[in-house]
Amino acid sequence: MAIVFVLVALLVLAVIVTANWYVWRRLFRDTTRGPGLTRRAGAVLIAGGWTLVVAALVAERSGAPFWLQQTLAWPGFLWLALSIYLLLAVVAGEVVRPLLRRILERRDRARAETETETGTGPKASTADQVHTTAALDTDEGPHTPVAPGEATASASATAPAPQAGVGAGVPGGLADAGTAADPQAGVGAAAPGVAAAAAAQAGLVGGATASATPPHPGTTPTPDAPEATPQPLTPTAITDPIPTTDTTPPAPTPTGPSRRLFVSRVVAGAAAAAAVGTVGYGTYGVLRGPKVKRVTVPLAKLPRAAHGFRIAVVSDVHLGPVLGRGFAQTVVDTINATQPDLIAVVGDLIDGSVKDLGPAAAPLARLRARHGSYFVTGNHEYFSGAEEWVEEVRRLGLNPLENARRELPYFDLAGVNDIAGEEEGQGPDFARALGDRDTARACVLLAHQPVQINDAVEHGVDLQLSGHTHGGQLWPGNLIASAANPTLAGLERYGDTQLYVSRGAGAWGPPTRVGAPSDITLIELASKQA
């Protein structure tokens, strides 16, 4: 058994660590460009928050000094609630993340297309343009694409040659860019302008230029001038254009975050805002105090004289390090405002000892009802000294029902201890509370946990009033609570027995409720004979 407990504890620890690492990654690592103060601060925040959670739980269960419990409870329990909704929000962000990225990609693509069509987009720099030749190669040679602006200048400055020269090293079809083509040019003679331009492009000196240009007819060459070897014009020398000046400014270099980083920051910010807002509103709802919920319950055995009898049901107040005397006074004032005929406190009144919480529970002495106030234990009373609290509530004017029954004028009111009392030999005893009663009379049973409904059905109870579930308290905790209890909240029928479960007036752990608002229920009994 010990091995199973250790394995379960390790599994739970692994899940918590993994979940917190995932939250840290999405909120801090993915939203920063690299390691730095933000990432370290996020790690400290998450680790420190969970340290406070553990410390608050240990302090409450170990009976640490009450001032220490109060110091640790507020930040520790609030961080517990915030961690739950940070995790849920980040998981929900995984659905939003690809959609947002796709939207941004489409927007950028549409913007680029619009700029291209209107000519307002950034132009490519000169270095990125494709160079072209000023003239074409032979039919078998490659054709180089013409760069914008350069092809126009080349075409306007070049005159066509009717006949190609052969054997001079100049490709056919070329003419000097600044000289008209000579239609009578002999075979093997190159146009002087072409040779000069080619020599200039190739970086040739005067001797080479002279050798590339034949003497004019009728002139005698200088004897002592050495004859230079004709230099063939290479495609590079011909095709490289004269550099032009592009005054178009280069496209601006992006300086903002990448699209992925931007999306991560947006999703993380939205997740954090949603989590903080959810916890803040849920905490405000608890501290504001419970609202009154009115429910009519018909009972077949209820006499006509009891038609409209009102029972104020309050459960799970959880007075403790967070909810103190002021909250207790709010609950008392809310109950008294309903003017009930009877008040039923169905367990989990406190989270702490009489020594620490006696002053906080003192306002309960002001409860007022014509047929009195009644109390049964919940599981948390057994964590805090049930016997002492039974005596304390009796001193405050409430009537504890410890596996006992009271015969009221119109029906029987019974109460049983909570299941948690079994470990102390004070568990529920339905036979003692209900065994010898008159079954012709209607019976209302106070039992903290809804799972006790099966025993109530066996003993012919007409209505059981319970709490314990908190309605789940923190969504989606309602899914877990629903699996562990026959009824999560509200009124349901089990054979001839009806079960009503209150969501409770307070909160345990985080003083926060999400999807399960606190309530005090005013049950109005209805006679079918009326």
From TrEMBL:
Residues 309-471 form the Calcineurin-like phosphoesterase domain. The keyword Hydrolase applies. Residues 147-164, 225-248 have a biased composition (Low complexity). The keyword Phosphoprotein does not apply. Residues 110-129, 136-164, 207-259 are annotated as: Disordered. The chain crosses the membrane at residues 6-24, 36-57, 77-100, 266-287. It comes from the Bacteria. Keywords: Hydrolase, Membrane, Metal-binding, Transmembrane, Transmembrane helix. Residues 214-224 have a biased composition (Pro residues). InterPro entries: Calcineurin-like_PHP (IPR004843), Metallo-depent_PP-like (IPR029052), Metallophosphoesterase_sf (IPR051158). This is Metallophosphoesterase.
